[in-house]
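queue> pop job 88
queue> type: inverse folding (structure -> sequence)
queue> payload:
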């Protein structure tokens, strides 16, 4: 009798854990992932460095 109850409890727990896992995966796929743009200051500095770097290479 105890073994039957234990098996039933384990099966129920397994189903609950599988359902929670499925919900978490489903919610993760529904999130829209985006990338933040670079700040203007950083973008300007990197462009200036690239221009200076290109100028030094071409000389």
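queue> result:
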């Amino acid at each position: 009798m105890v073994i039957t109850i234990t098996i039933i409890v384990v099966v129920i727990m397994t189903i609950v854990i599988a359902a929670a896992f499925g919900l978490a995966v489903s919610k993760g796929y529904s999130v829209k992932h985006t990338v933040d743009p670079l700040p203007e200051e950083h973008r300007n500095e990197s462009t200036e460095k690239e221009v200076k770097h290109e100028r030094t290479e071409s000389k």
